[in-house]
Amino acid sequence: ETRGVLNVFLLDKIIWGLNLTGLVQSSLGSKAMTVFMTLIYSLHIPLVITTAAILWVKRKDVFVSYSYILSICTYISFIFFLLFPSSPPWLAGAAQNLLNGSSGTSVYKVLSDIVESDPLATFPSLHAVYALLLPYIFFRLKRIYGMILLPLAVLILFSTVYLGQHYVIDLIAGGTIFAVSLLIAKI
Q: Predicted confidence band at 121 (pLDDT cuts at 50, 70, 90)?
């Protein structure tokens, strides 16, 4: 812990036996991959909003469940953010901040500036929560919808690690909060 900011790098390294985020970046890093992953990473909020709009119009009963789960997950995560601000891999020196690697006024630069809003809100990962909620809620509507959206959720999860924004432990904590939220909402 440095100046009140939790550094989960050591925990992540103990669990995996190596700097997994750094390994992902060094093994797969390329400009094209970084641009693609930034686009994927930036989808988590538009997908939440689009899903809410679709459910509001098509299935208000599922919209209510979605809203409960979304609210519970977000508030639990917010409490963690307030009590245990944590440094992302790039801030802790475990990885590069690939969202900050662009210059100029490209779409990539605009997206990276928008999606990197709070560098100390990393544990647990709301990207993980929202990415998991997407296929789950659509799976409830129709199995095939959830199956189609599952690869997108996996890409969003991967993008957070690749870009140096989250450790895998952040994603696991986000998934745990998602599961707890389902239990609380009894859905």
A: low
pTM, full prediction: 0.85
Radius of gyration of the chain (CA): 17
Distances (CA, A) of 84 to 5, 51, 121, 177: 7, 30, 9, 15
According to DSSP, the residues that pair with 2 across neighbouring strands are: 5
* Strand ranges (E), the chain: none
Q: What is the DSSP string of 32-84?
A: HHHHHHHHHHTTHHHHHHHHHHHHHHH-HHHHHHHHHHHHHHHHHHHHHHHHS
Paired tokens of 120: 């100390």
Per-residue pLDDT tens digits for 23-55: 888 888 888 898 899 889 888 889 999 999 999
